[in-house]
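quick one, 115 residues, struct below
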Amino acid sequence: MSEHNPARTTEAIDYIAVEESARFRTLKRTQRSFIFPLAAFFLIWYFVYVLLAAFATDFMSQRVWGDITIGLLLGLGQFVTTFAITMGYVSFANRKLDPIATEIREELEKAQGQA
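---
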């Protein structure tokens, strides 16, 4: 059997054991602790915006400055929030998730190289 045979390398690594390891579970828990609250926040913020647009038209059409209305500002706020969440997640992943994921990946690559 050749050293680069995929069947041989996949048999050498127990991916189920890796997935059930404490570090991998910590990685998933850490990711979810960031994602779920922010996803809930954004969905609530989005539905509040939609409901205000549908049922509070007088409020949303109030002019703030010239032709700029509260509805327009809240709509633009949706984009700002999306970018802020994305930047926050990238920063969080770089600090908290990537070091753990790198350790796990390096161990798997080392195990694959020894197979």
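The chain has one domain: 6-114.
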